[in-house]
Structures are given as C-alpha cells and as structure tokens.
Amino acid sequence: MSVPYLMNDPKGYIPASQRIPVLARPFVSERAKKTLDIVERFVEEECIPADAVFAQQIKEAGEAHSSNIVGRFESHPSVIEDLKKRAKELGLWNMFLPKNHFKEGAGFSNLEYGLMAEYLGKSGTASNMEVFAKYGTQAQKDKWLKPLLNGEIRSAFLMTEPQVASSDATNIEMSMHKEGNEWVLNGQKWWSSGAGDKRCKIYIVMAKSDPTNTNKHKQQSVILVPADTPGVTIHRMLSVMGFDDAPHGHGHISFDNVRVPESNMILGAGRGFEVVQGRLGPGRIHHAMRSIGSAEKALEWFLARINDPAKKPFGEQLSKHGIQLERVARSRIEIDSARLAVLNAAAKIDEGDAKAALKEIAEVKVQVPSMLMDVLDRAIQAYGGAGVSQDTPLAHQWASGRTMRIVDGPDEVHILQIGRNENKRGDTLRKRIVAQQEKTKELYKKYGLKYEDPLQLNRVNGGKSKL
Amino acid sequence: MSVPYLMNDPKGYIPASQRIPVLARPFVSERAKKTLDIVERFVEEECIPADAVFAQQIKEAGEAHSSNIVGRFESHPSVIEDLKKRAKELGLWNMFLPKNHFKEGAGFSNLEYGLMAEYLGKSGTASNMEVFAKYGTQAQKDKWLKPLLNGEIRSAFLMTEPQVASSDATNIEMSMHKEGNEWVLNGQKWWSSGAGDKRCKIYIVMAKSDPTNTNKHKQQSVILVPADTPGVTIHRMLSVMGFDDAPHGHGHISFDNVRVPESNMILGAGRGFEVVQGRLGPGRIHHAMRSIGSAEKALEWFLARINDPAKKPFGEQLSKHGIQLERVARSRIEIDSARLAVLNAAAKIDEGDAKAALKEIAEVKVQVPSMLMDVLDRAIQAYGGAGVSQDTPLAHQWASGRTMRIVDGPDEVHILQIGRNENKRGDTLRKRIVAQQEKTKELYKKYGLKYEDPLQLNRVNGGKSKL
Amino acid sequence: MSVPYLMNDPKGYIPASQRIPVLARPFVSERAKKTLDIVERFVEEECIPADAVFAQQIKEAGEAHSSNIVGRFESHPSVIEDLKKRAKELGLWNMFLPKNHFKEGAGFSNLEYGLMAEYLGKSGTASNMEVFAKYGTQAQKDKWLKPLLNGEIRSAFLMTEPQVASSDATNIEMSMHKEGNEWVLNGQKWWSSGAGDKRCKIYIVMAKSDPTNTNKHKQQSVILVPADTPGVTIHRMLSVMGFDDAPHGHGHISFDNVRVPESNMILGAGRGFEVVQGRLGPGRIHHAMRSIGSAEKALEWFLARINDPAKKPFGEQLSKHGIQLERVARSRIEIDSARLAVLNAAAKIDEGDAKAALKEIAEVKVQVPSMLMDVLDRAIQAYGGAGVSQDTPLAHQWASGRTMRIVDGPDEVHILQIGRNENKRGDTLRKRIVAQQEKTKELYKKYGLKYEDPLQLNRVNGGKSKL
Amino acid sequence: MSVPYLMNDPKGYIPASQRIPVLARPFVSERAKKTLDIVERFVEEECIPADAVFAQQIKEAGEAHSSNIVGRFESHPSVIEDLKKRAKELGLWNMFLPKNHFKEGAGFSNLEYGLMAEYLGKSGTASNMEVFAKYGTQAQKDKWLKPLLNGEIRSAFLMTEPQVASSDATNIEMSMHKEGNEWVLNGQKWWSSGAGDKRCKIYIVMAKSDPTNTNKHKQQSVILVPADTPGVTIHRMLSVMGFDDAPHGHGHISFDNVRVPESNMILGAGRGFEVVQGRLGPGRIHHAMRSIGSAEKALEWFLARINDPAKKPFGEQLSKHGIQLERVARSRIEIDSARLAVLNAAAKIDEGDAKAALKEIAEVKVQVPSMLMDVLDRAIQAYGGAGVSQDTPLAHQWASGRTMRIVDGPDEVHILQIGRNENKRGDTLRKRIVAQQEKTKELYKKYGLKYEDPLQLNRVNGGKSKL
User: Fold this and answer.
1) Which residues does chain B have within 8 Å of residue C187's beta carbon, measured at their own beta carbons?
2) Can you tell which superkingdom this protein's organism belongs to (chains A, B, C, D) (predicted)?
C-alpha cells in the first residue's frame, strides 16, 4: 500500500535519484543517491501525512490549556518525536553538515544534501548547528552540540533587532561589555526563530563588543547565552501572516544586564561577522533547496486540483483551461531553472567555500523565494477559498515562503550587492567597447567606407563633442 | 594591444574556459576548452569590430545600386569573406555538428558547442546543415553538404506558410504530388530565412505528400528544391521590426508546379516530421545559447553605459542609481540561471537524443528568448535614444531576439506542450495526495485527535458531499 | 490635538473632498462632499486607532475562555459598539444603499458612496442589506432589514460550496424542494462570511430548486434561512492565511433537511441569478473602493517606513534608495488609475444599472485586487519582519486582500468573461480591416503603386492561397 | 460602402461620441462630440487605408532616386497632401491648441482634443506650434506660426544632445553667447524629429546662454534658428528599431558658430525651462492619447487575428484559446484605465494649467507607453511572423511606441520625480501613524487591555529601545 504516496509519474514511481538533473549527476555519490531515495520515501510516506496531525496536536493543546497561547507553545506534539525516532532508524540524521568542512555530519556535500533538502522542504525545519560544529571550542561542542545533534535541545540565532535596519548587520545596537571575566549584554532581539519551544535552551547572540572600532565589521561578536540566564525575557511571539508557528515560534526577547562567562564567546571577540558569514552560506543553500521542494509541492497540489473531476467551471475541467496550463508550464520552467542555479551554487561552495560562491549564493537568495511566491500564488488561485484556508498546505507555505524574501537580508540587500559587484566590470567593459569601436574605425578605413558619425566617437568613453 | 578587447574583469582577462559554470565543467573536454577560448578571442577581437563594417558595406552597396533593395541583397560584404578565411585558419569551422551523431563535424558535444555558441551569439549566423548530415543520402551529401560545409553556397529551410497557423505543422498546405519519377510542388512559403542571399542555392522544403493519411504526422515530406528550379518565385523580402537583414533576408516564395526528381526526397515520403524534429532539437539549443550570448552582450553594453562618466542625470552617474543597479542584478540572475537550463538541456541531448530531452528543450525555448527581451529592454532604456538607434547593437539584437519567441513554434505552442505534458502527472498526484490524506485520517485516530472536516474528505478526489 | 491624525500633506490637512479626482467632481453633490470629510475624520481619528484595540479584545476574550476558539467567536468587542454609536451620531449609517434604487439608504449615489468606501476600507466591514432592500417583500423587510439597518443583527450570504467549482454558480449542488408550503434544503456551504458572529441571525442561501430546468440560469433560488433553524450545523471556521477573522468568521455549514416557509423565498423561485447579480454589481464597487483605501493605507505605511530616521541600511535612509522610490511611484500610478476605473464603473451603474456596467465592473474586479496585492507586497517588503507580523496592519490587509482575487468569482472567471465579451467584436473588426485593405488596394491603383503581396491579400480574411 | 470601415461592434457602428467614458462626459461639449465623430470617420475611412500608400510612396521614391536615402527623405508623398486637403475640408485643422490658452486653435479643451487624439494616434503626427502660439511675439507668429498652421512649413524642437544625459535638461551643453545683437550657437543636437523633411524650415533650439548662473534652471534659453542658417549641418538620420521614419526623420545636427538675431529669442534669455515646461504638459497628454489610440488599434488587430478562420493551431481557432482570451482581457483592462488617467490629467490641465497637473502628467507619462508596449507585444505574438513584418502596422507601432518611454524624459526620470514628490508626505504620514498609535495606547488603558509591546512603541517614530 506504500505505492500511492510515491507515485509521481503516470507510469508509476520514478525515484528521486533518477530525476537528478543531468548536469548535477557527476556530483552525486552512489551513497547519496541511496539516501536521497530513502529521504523521498520518508517524506512522502510518513512526514507529509503527519503534517496535519502536528498542526492539530498543537491546536488541541492550545484549546486544552487555560491559556491558548501557553498551551500552543508548551505543546510537545508526539507525532514529531515519533518521526524523529523513525528518521534516526533510517539513518537520516544531521545530514546537513557538509563533508568537506565537518566531521560531525553524515558526510554529504552541500550539493548532495541540497538534493535531499528539496524533499525535506515539503515538511521540515532548520538548524544552527553549523555554528557550533564550525566555530565551537571542544568544550562548547561537548556542552551544546551533542544534545543538539541528538535532538534533545534546540537553539536560536539572535541577530535581528526591531528598532534598527539590521538587514545591514553593522547597524545592530545590542551591546556587550566586559566586566571581570564576564560579558554583560543589554538590548533586544526579535524574529528569534525557535525561541518559542520550551526545549530551546541556548541562544547564539550577536552584539556589539567594540562599537567604536573604525572597522565596522569588527565591532560585533557572537556569544552563547543559555535561555535561562537571569535578565533574559521573552516578551511575546511574533506571527507570520497570522500563523504563530507554535511551538517553534518567533520570539521578541530583551536582555537586561545578562551575564555570561567569557568562555561562551564564539571564535573570539570582534569576529562576529566571520561567524555569521560562515553560517549563512550553506544555510542559504539549504533554505533555497527547501524552497524548491515547497514549490514542487505547490505544483503537485496545483496539478491535483486541475485534475479534480468535480471542478468544472464552464463545463470543462480546469486542466483543459489554457490559462491554467500556461501557469503550470511557467511554474515548471521557473522551478527547473531555479533548481539548477541552487545546485550550481552548492557545487561552487563544495569546490571552494562559501566566500568563493558569494555571487552564486546571492543570486539564488533572490531568485528562489520570488519564484516560490509565484508558483504558490498560482496554486492558491486554482484552489480558490481552499487555497487560502487551512484545508491545503498552500497558505502556510506562502506565509513561510514570504519570510524567505526577508530573512538573512531582504531581497534588496542582495540585489544591491549583486548589482554593485557586477558593476565592478563596468569600466573595464566600457574600455573594451571603446577599443572595439577604435578597431571598427580602422576597418572602415581599410575597407574604404564612410564613417557617418564624426561627432559621436567613443560615446561610451564619455567623450565630449570636439567641434 | 589585443588585451582591451578581451578585458572582462577589473583584474583583466579571465578566459571563457575558466568561467564555465561549475555544474557544466565535468562535461567539457580539454580540447573544447581550448577551442572555446579561441572562439572568445576571435569574436571579441575580430568579429564584433567587424559588425558595423558589415552593416555599412551593405548600406553602401544599396546606395551604389540603382535599386537600393537589389543592391543590398546582391551585396557580398567582403569583411565576411575575410572573417570566414580567418575562422578556417583558427580551426573554427562547422563546429556545430554534434560528435555523437555526425562524422562531418568538428567533434564537439552539444554542450561544448553550446558554450561556443554563446560567444558566436555576439555576432553570428545559423545553419541547416544538420539536415543533410543527419538524413542526407550520400549523393545528396556530395552534391550539397560539401559546398555548404565549405561555405561556398547556402541553404534555406522552408516550412512556414502565411495563410495558415503553421506553428502547428500539421496545418501546412503546400502540396506535392508524384508525376512519374518527379514530385510537383505547389503553394507558398514565407520567413524563408537566408533566401535573400544570392548564394542560397538549395531549399529544404516541407510539403504535404499524403494529405489524407489518417496519421496527421505522416502527411508531410521534406524535399530538396534547387533555388533556380522553374516555377520558384521570390516575391519579396520580409522585414523584422524595420530591419531587412540583407543580404541574408527572409523571403516570401511561391511554388507553381515546381518539379524535382524523387531522389531529392529526404529520408523518405511521409517522414517530414521526423526530419523536422531531428533538426529542431539541437538547433534550438544553438539558438538558445546564441541568445544567452546576446543577453551577455546587452548586459555588457548596459554596464558600459551606466559607467559613462559623461552621463550624470541628477548629478550622479547612472551606476549609483538604485533603479539601474536593480536591473543589472536581475539581468545577472536571469542570464545565469537560463544558461544553466540550456546547458542542462544540451547535456540531456548529448546523453540520449533530442527526443529524450523534449521537456528540457521546450523549457529553454520559452525561457531564454523572454529573458533576452527583458535584459535588452533594460539596456535600451539606459541608453535612451542611442538604444533604439543604429548607434548601439541593441536595437537590432532586440529585433532578432523578438523573432526567437516566434520561430520554430511561438511561445504559446511550447507553453501548451509543457503544460499538457506536466499535466499528465496530475491524476497520479491527485491520487497520491488522497492516499496521504487517508493516512492522515488513520494518524488522527492513532493519536486520538478530532477530525474537523467530516464533509470535506478527499476533496481532491472529487468526492461529493455524503450528507 | 486632532490635527496629527489627519495630516496627509506637508502643508497640513487637505480634506478628502478637495482630493476627489477632477473627472469625478461633477458627480459629487455638496452634501456628499461634507459627509465624505466627516467619514475621513472619523476613520483617521477614531476607527484606525481602535483597530488594534478590537484585535486585542478578541485575543483576550479567547484567552479568558476555556476554549480559545469559542471565546474568540463569542466575543463582543465593546470598542466596536462604541464606534457604532459614534457613527450614528455623526450621521454615518447605512450610506451604501444607492439613492436611485433604494429609499432606505442615506441618499448617496454609488460613486459618492464609493468615495466614502475608500476611507472605510482603511478599517471596515461589508453587508448583505442590498438584497433585502432591493428584492425583499415588505414582510421580509420588516422582520430582517430593520434590525439589520439598526445594527442589532447580522446576516450571511451562503453561495460557495466546497465540493464543486461554485465560481460558476450554475454548478452549485445544494438542493431545495417543496414539501407542502415549505422548502426543504440539503447540502453544504462554506466561506459563509460573518456566520461566526453570534449576532448573525439570518442566512441568505442559494440552492437549486429546479435542477432539470433547461435554462441553467433558472435552476437556482435564493431563500432566507434563520440561523437557528433545525438541521443547520456550523462545523468549523475557516482561516484566511492563518487569520480566523473572529468574531466575524468564515463558516463551513451543513443543511440537513432544513425547512423554511415559502414566504422566505426572495423574488420568486428560479430567480436566484437575478438576486445574485443585483447584489454583486454595487457590492463589487464597494469592495473595490475599500481595496483602494487599503492600498492607500499601505502606501502611507510604506512612506512612513522609508522616512523612519532609525532605518538606514548602508548609511542612507530608505527614502533615498532608488529601488524604494520606484516602488512608491509605481504604487502611486497604479492606485490613481485604479481609482478612476472604479469611479467610472460606479458612475456607469448610477447612470443605468449594474447590468449596463457589466464590462466596467468586471474590469475593476480583476484590476483592483491585483493592484492592491502589489502595493501591499512592496510595503511589507520595506518593513521586513514587521511587515509580516502583527506589528503592522499590512499582513492582515494582505490576507483579506488576497481573498478579493477569489470571492464573487475568481479572477479567471472575470478574465474569461471580459475576453469573450471583447472577442464578440473580433469578426466585425476583421471585416473592417479587410475593407480598409481593399481600399488600400484601390489607392495603390489610383497612385500608380506596385502591390507587392499578391498572394497575401486579405490575410485576416482567412483567404487561402489562390495560386 | 462606408459602413465596414466604421464597424466596431457586433451590432454595427457606435460613434466615438457615444463611447466616451461616463466620467469624462460632463467635460465634452456638443460641438466637440460632433468633431470627434468626424475625426473617427476620417481616420478609419480615409487615413488608415492610406497608411500603406504613404509607406509605399516613400519606398518607391527611394528606389527611384540614385541615392535611396536622399530619395526617401526628399519624397513628398502625395497621399498626405490629399489627406491634408480633405482634413481642412472637414474642419479638422489645428485642433490641438487648447481653448483656454490659445486663440489660434480650434477652440477645444485638452480633454476634448485628447479624445480626438486617440483616433489620430491610429495614423498621425505631432507638432511644436504650441511654443509659437503660447510664447511667440507677434512678429514671430506672423513669420512662422501662420505657415505652420497652414501646413506649408514644418518645425523641429532641438533639445536632446548625444554626449550628455540630457534627460536632465540642466545637463545640456550647446552654448549660445551674445555678439552685438546676435546670438551665436555652438554644439550638437540629435533626435531632432521632423528635421528630415525638406519643408522643415525652422528649429526651436535650447542652449545655455548663462552657464554660470547659480540657478541651474535659469541657464538655458530657447531660440529660433532657421534651418538654412550658415553653420547648421544635418549629419545623418537616426533610425528607430530599423525604421528611418522618412521623410519626417530624426536628425543629428551640428551648430558651428550659427548666428541669429536677438529677436529670435523666445520669451526672453534664461527662460528656456519655462518654454519647455509649457510645451511639454499638453504635448504629453496628446502623445499619451495617441498612444491610447495605438493600443486600441493593436487590440483591434489582435482581435481580428484570433478570429481569422484560417488560423487554427491544434484544431481550434485562436479565439477559443484561454491564453489568448486572457491577453485580450488584460489589454482591455489596461487600456481603459490608462485612458481615464489621461483624460483626468487633461481635465486637470484644463482646470488650471500644466503646472497644477504635474503629478497627473508624470503618472500618465510612465503608465501609458508601458501599457502600449504590453498590448502591442501580445498582438505581435498572436500574428507570429506577420507581427514583426511589414504586413501589419504592429512592428512600426512598436518601434514608435518604444520611443515614448524615452522622449521628453525617460521613464526613470518621471518615476523618480513621482517617487520624490510622493515621499514629501512621508514624514507627515509617519507622525500621523505615531499619533494614531498614541491614541491606541490610551484606548488600551480605557478598555483595560494589556499592551504587549513595551519595547516597540513608536516604531515608525524612530524611537530607540528605552531599556
């Protein structure tokens, strides 16, 4: 009876490993292919059916508690624990730590894990474990990474602040100063994702340790703050388009003279930017591939809808309507080319590191969420009322997807970065075109042609009129 | 002094072979990389400066002749002959015949030639030689393919007809019937590209040989018609957005009892669709990669413009304007992901054949020209009046690029094909979602949850209300 | 201290009546202008500040009740009752019943009320009272319209059904049959907006009374069903992108042998389409103008954000970023032209009736919600995390606005209707162009010119080749 | 036999005066309505059939001359002279000078003439006569305006310069200095539209007379330069997407010590900006309404095509294809709302002057050409090859329409102007929202609610955290 969950083709089930784009195949090991197929089966057969169960367990926990909000956030949906156990049994655990940088992971490359993340994006969650694995001291790893890798506790990364434009991280205001061998933190953070969960025991916090440093990228540090440290207050949970995302949640947290030992510092004072950069590169690839998965899921639901025999506006099933078929086709095209872009960025990271792939990562950071929004919007529209309601996964996918255009820097930041980076070639190209035009003039002479534009030579050279 | 033509990076010249996307690298041989770099140099250093010379030679030939039109179309711009000679010297000749299907070619794969075609797209022309090489008899090859490969004559492919929707080739009306051992053709064709050139000696013509065959894809044949056969009349040349594309040209041609021997048949009567499909697959990849090259060139001119020190609206160089930088960034993103899609389609053809890559080819057929239009439009807009005039290559690139959304089937044909093909999965996916929902119901029971939607079960199953 | 709420211009307060587009001015009475200014003040000074209060009262009612859901939907936010009283004092009550069709209303035209609705769209709610006022018998009016007009009870219009494509209302399945002098209803409805409110006492229900009538538009009737009739069950409340819209709510309701007297019939059996059409025309104008108001509010918040002195990514306030200014400008352009389109449609209804304005109404039904989505998306993006959260009104505006592309027929239905209607002119225009081309041929002769296209005459006439 | 040219509705001919949007009707006199209907008949019955004749006369003139270029530009297509005569007979002459500013015109308002310009946009040309009529001295009017109004001579407005960003007119470099009672001009201009015509006898030239004036808008003057003044050289004609627009043409002209008497100054030295502004306001409205007409024509051709019985891809006429109907519908919506925007801007000018309508004019300057491009692109695509060729008017319409996004300032200039203007309200709106939030806080207290966001007060006020 497992077949129907996996059917994806009129001819039956074609495993994920056989649907890898041709260009990406040389980059995928046999072991990764096997794991990929296990991931796909696990997601389609066990995770997706459990999604509504998860939502309902939280809802009922809220209704059962005297405070709905407390009930929702204190809930421990048992279906998740069961799935975790199952994932461990299947060997699907901590696959995301790329093999060329981490010994703690499952030994897959970013590209290989990316392929798996696409399927996880049809259900999943995220993680800050890269930070510990990449930059943690042995003591930090022992204390926090182990229980994290075991799924016993959770962590939250606290960077965004409500009162400044923290998309430009040089703007953050939370302060930390040294008193004795302790650091003292003051300020506030929001969009602390995961902070709602009672098992979220450790915060990774960015703050300004050296606010007057003339190098704006050396003013920040990243430090570990246990969630139960005195002075830490979770004020409220933020909602995303009406969803509270309980029990995970997005916290708004203040720090009032919060003291932590200096051994909690990650990598060293003033090296906050380094930590953030190292975390964001692969993380963005994982986000992007999950978004690809979310888009594929939206397209699947879209296709299911237009083939519903009960839905026949104007006497014809929706799959006969050209408007719908055009939207299906554009979705197919956009998803496929976005996936290749993400896999290419992943391969670039695997080849070198996140820094070498800055351009490629920024490109998919902009391209993918925007594509996802378009595909989701078409699917929602095909479902009408059901599309915006709790009866399809689309509304929640949309809300989560929408934040992808904001988190880790809004689109505009990356667009400007890409634009400015590309523009560095501008002057060089201008000179090349001028040189080509000079050669054209020589050829005109050689071939005895009339040059009609005596005033306008070297227009891209900024040449003034020489009359 | 050759350096400036090649500069493409603030640090100097980075050869094309080092800029191949990571994903594509395993598919490119060392020999192809070397040739690719030669192609790039040849295009940037010799072809691009000659483009304006070519245009001016035609213009002056028109002015020198008593009939401007005749003069333009009879011109043999000597700069082209010189470039051909140079290309042959450099070993750049007939590179486009893919190695796994042809012995006549230069031995490159579709992907490898695709990379080169990107550069050729900054100047280039196309070809029908695949048809001869792939489907021609030895006699046909001897008579026509040799002089074609030597560049002595040219050919035109005549498929489109003005009076029907020939985007769906089953609609073509030109007839051919057998009389003795001759085929007799009647009808008309237009958009016969290349027919303007006096050296265009041979037409490859699609016509209906068996109009009543119940299989609509067996009614057509493809046959060779020498241009000077009695009954063939070129009525006029069509323009593209005001450009006549002389001397190449786009002809409108009628056939009035045109007789050719039956040995001129390609592949066999009734096999016209096969011939067309075999020609179009790789051809579309080449078109698409040339379009990528055209887009890169447009972006280069765009960047050159916004760095022109003489252009400072509102006191600031255009490269400081956020509106322009956003357009640069979006162009960068769109080109890069389109290129990966084309290379993936090329690799898919190389792996199997054009038929196996139908989906991928159709996708890039839609994606790439539309992307090219967007990038060109932004560049044109940045140049203002110069952008639409003869002073930049952009206007002509736009006109040629616009036809790419039409030739070999307009976008809509491919969109519907992709949509319908994708829709084949619809019923399967619907069943999968239903199965997942059934499992959800079981899990609700297992976890003791309340199912809130008794009326709405299996909504995508078309289930009626059971009240 | 009332000034700041109204400031809308650097020079201070310019009342709404002075900002009416020039084209619309001849259509607005002095009395309507005065009321418009009162509406604006009331909305900006009293309603908008109360919006968050309303949300918080519902939230706290949910937390205070043992069931959060019941608590939310049973809440009677006192702030709303206070605002109602205030509105009555100001004479702002039941303004929406257009003067040329109703005596119960405040005597304004659709265009005049439309101008007011724009401001109400910055806070408001909707109504089904048109149906009673327009089609109700005196007995029906006495029983239901009076308490509705007094705001003592509420109503819900039940048309949409989950299991069919009810966007095409000929598809609805809920049945009604006569037994004695009673009608018996069976079936289910959803998206019964307003049904969550405990004061919602009366449903206006569309069902099939004559399912075999050969005229598909005569099979339906609209009938009144008191909410407490036996057999009526509210199963659950639907959410919109995560918002439950309590206490108003969107119900999913089943009817199991629900009996109502025949005097509850509206207008007469088989006349359901007439009722729906009469309701939808003006209703769509009101929706559209409220959406214009929502878009203006989004733009106001957008402008407020980019002028926040604390938000300076890359060292420059957002209002200096060209990307943001472009989005502001495009929003301004799109809102202004959409408003004119709605006012023109309103004037067309005022001049004749909703039927005469079918084209104009359908156009704004498509144009306005899509415009609203674009403006909201830009504003949300400028706010980053705050934009999707409960800290701005934008997320909830987006969710509500998104449903406007679905309710009263999804975009696609109206697009096809407009397209088909416009297409009725197609054959006529084709003939006109042919006639013009025939005249061109005569002129060619008259002026002694060469006609180059002998084969292609009357191309749009479908003429075949005449060779 | 005149009927078919006018048919525009399945029911026959509905005159233009009966199709005026409801909102605009109060602004149109009976006399204007009558003229409007005459204009429509004249355009549909006489001008449109003559369009191809005009093109062919120029083409044949080119072929008949030893130099094609000279032949084309020296041609005087007799069909135009015949149409002029006919227009004068019908009383259709110089209708564009608005009644509230000019006594020389036909006495119509900008809105009234705008309605006529829509029809003229299906064939027409433009004019600089406003400048003479509005700012000319009596002597200037006697000498130039009279023969212009009689159609005996033509004029060209010379503002754009190739070597600077002259979209910002403060950047222009052409100089003029006083020597005795003469002004001496030096520099170059391009895009001098109309300068190709041999009857173009007078240039209206903008140059810098006071380049060091601290007020950047007082440095320029506008002066009359007869085309045959020594030192004036027309170097070449610019093409637009391959069209040379002969004999009108777009000239590239240099000025080498060109001397004109000081009586040729318009309005006074240093008042060039005033002249330009006064010309551009109504001129932009006329351009915009002609573009509306061009879009309507494109839609008409689009509709004609999809109803061509000979065009049936996939066995169904194009008018049955949902993709095409969606494009028709979107075109209809976009044209209708753009027209209202232009008419509203015209009414605003009529009410006050161009300065009072700056916002509205800038909005339509951006909105209309972009809408026109979209509508044309859809029509071109439906025609396939015919759409880009000389066989439909669409390609030339596209080329001309594309320049509308550039002339009189490119889109970006107007977008920034609108954005900055709108942004002036930003700080005011921010304060208003803060005041509304303060009131919300008071209401929270009044209603006994919990304020959850102690840290985040006055977020749009730029308030810092107060912890």
Assistant:
1) 465, 467
2) Eukaryota
